[in-house]
Amino acid sequence: MFFLFQRSKQLQALRQADMFAPVRVADFLLEKDPLFAQVTLDDDELRLYNQVYEQITVDAPTPDLVIFLQAPIDILLDRIRKRGVAAERHIDADYLASLNDAYTRFFHYYDSAPLLIVNATEIDLAGNAEHYAQLVEYMLTINSGRHYYNPHHNQSRG
């Protein structure tokens, strides 16, 4: 529930943001939030979550672009460990695989906004400015639809 209320505050901030700001970036998509709840909460908690979620999502803005970063579970676990966030310390492979499967199913059918699916296996967006710049350059070419970004394939075209 904490994360849901946090998302609600972030949505309010997005709605009230400067209308003249050229770009706004959010690291969440409210529509995928229930996936985390379904994998994590028990039945009673999930019922309460769903009631609150329905109230919060009434006026959620539609993003201009959604990005889904994909990588194998072992790489995701390694990146989680390297981040060193205390709340993430106890995430195990089975839980992460369940969450990853739920995300993959969700984005397979997602069509509410343009979608970019990124093969993030061999790129380091947090630690490599070149990787980040290449992704941003590719993102700027997207106006609609579903797109796939495989860095090695895309680099070999140019």
From TrEMBL:
Domain (Deoxynucleoside kinase) ranges: 21-138
Binding-site list for ATP: R79, I80, R81, K82, R83
GO cellular component assignments: cytoplasm
Active site per database record: D27 (proton acceptor)
InterPro entries: DCK/DGK, Deoxyribonucleoside_kinase, DNK_dom, P-loop_NTPase
Family annotation (Gene3D superfamilies): P-loop containing nucleotide triphosphate hydrolases
Signal peptide: none
Classification via Pfam families: dNK
Keywords, in A-Z order: ATP-binding, Nucleotide-binding
GO MF entries: ATP binding; deoxynucleoside kinase activity
PANTHER family named in the record: DEOXYGUANOSINE KINASE (PTHR10513:SF46), DEOXYNUCLEOSIDE KINASE (PTHR10513)
Name of the featured protein: Deoxynucleoside kinase domain-containing protein
Organism of origin: Exilibacterium tricleocarpae
